[in-house]
Design goal:
With 320 residues, this protein is α/β, with parallel strands linked by helices. The chain folds into 2 domains: 125 residues, no CATH class; 187 residues, Rossmann fold, CATH 3.40.50.150. Helices cover 52% and strands 18% of the residues. It has 13 helices and 7 strands. It has a 7-stranded mixed β-sheet, sandwiched between helices. It starts with a helix and ends in a 6-residue tail after the last strand. The structure holds S-adenosylmethionine. S-adenosylmethionine binds next to loops.
């Protein structure tokens, strides 16, 4: 059965050589994952397949021939998430709720982090919901820019979005902030490996403790970060002040997405919209991408993870 699914996956991915190399590495480490991958890739639009191949090309440069190690990290990460899902569906909440708990279990646990970070890089290519928000960012956020822009990203991780922003001829300045010096170093190394030649200002900032911004930006990105915070509303209030009156913010939050370092649960798109609007933004666009490309209504009803991308603008200039 796995063999049939793997064969069908290979046919589907034949036009995407970089993606296929990654899928082969995962199939070698985890043959039973073929059915999951076939669903995840089978549900993608041509545009999503094209942006997946772009992400895979970048990811392969970052993996530098270590695909097998990354594939093991991916399998291990999926195992961790499965345990969290069992807890979430039994209890209806994320297991941890404070930063101190997540810090002890995840951020300060070097062994854990190294495998987790490998796994998350591959999830960007292999999970429909991650590939979906990436395609939204590439094609309906960055490509929509029609004037030079100053870019700020919070929590850039592997730096794939900063990389895309740097490739845009319209990006005038680029900044990325993270509270983890280790993470920032990895972002810097990744951008160098990917050949980004525009300067990127990498600054250690805890977004929950940031002072009033000393300048403003045209495009702010905060992707897969708010669910890691005890007070996402504090981060959004700061970012509202850091956004130019004519600027846009791209916010990506996974709904019902248990993970050891997710401490703030958002369950519905309405809840997320309310959180964003309470900080003084107006939501202009909202797109949802469920795990394996499932139907959104049933994923929400069954509380299966749905990545939600929002593009928002300042609601008004005077109130905030
Ligand atoms: C899951 S990663 C997101 C990576 C990437 N943006 C993505 O979409 O895949 C979360 C990032 O947020 C950073 N982060 C978490 N809490 C933060 C805080 N309070 N201030 C700044 N960065 C934070 C973490 O260090 C990590 O790099």
């Amino acid at each position: 059965m796995s063999d049939e699914k793997a064969a069908a996956l290979r046919v589907l991915l034949a036009p995407l050589p970089e993606t296929l190399v990654i899928a082969e590495a995962v199939l070698a480490a985890w043959p039973d994952h073929a059915a999951y991958l076939l669903k995840s890739f089978g549900a993608r639009s041509p545009e999503m397949l094209a942006s997946t191949e772009l992400a895979a090309t970048a990811a392969r440069k970052l993996m530098a021939g270590n695909e097998a190690r990354f594939a093991e990290g991916y399998r291990w990460t999926c195992d961790q998430l499965r345990d969290e899902e069992i807890f979430f569906h039994r209890e209806g909440r994320y297991r941890l709720s404070t930063f101190a708990e997540a810090d002890a279990e995840v951020y300060s646990n070097h062994d854990y982090m190294s495998r987790y970070v490998d796994g998350l890089l591959l999830s960007q290519i292999l999970w429909f919901n991650h590939a979906g928000t990436f395609e939204m960012f590439a094609n309906r956020v960055l490509a929509a820019a029609d004037a030079p822009f100053d870019y700020l990203e919070i929590g850039p991780g592997h730096g794939l979005m900063v990389y895309l922003a740097a490739r845009s001829p319209l990006s005038r300045s680029l900044a990325a902030w993270d509270f983890s010096a280790v993470s920032l170093r990895e972002t810097g190394a990744a951008l160098a490996t990917l050949g980004v030649d525009k300067p990127v200002s990498l600054v250690e900032v805890d977004i929950l403790k940031a002072e009033a911004p000393d300048r403003q930006y045209d495009l702010i990105v905060i992707s897969e970060v708010l669910e890691h915070l005890e007070q996402p509303e504090v981060a959004l209030a700061f970012l509202r002040k850091a956004l130019r009156p004519t600027g846009r913010i791209f916010i990506n939050v996974p709904l019902n997405s248990p993970s050891p370092d997710h401490i703030y649960l958002v369950s519905t798109p309405e809840e997320l919209t309310a959180l964003v609007e309470a900080a003084g933004f107006k939501v202009e666009r909202l797109e949802m991408f469920a795990t394996q490309g499932r139907k959104i209504e049933s994923a929400l009803a069954q509380r299966i993870s749905v990545s939600t991308g929002i593009v928002a603008v300042p609601a008004s200039n005077d109130r905030f």
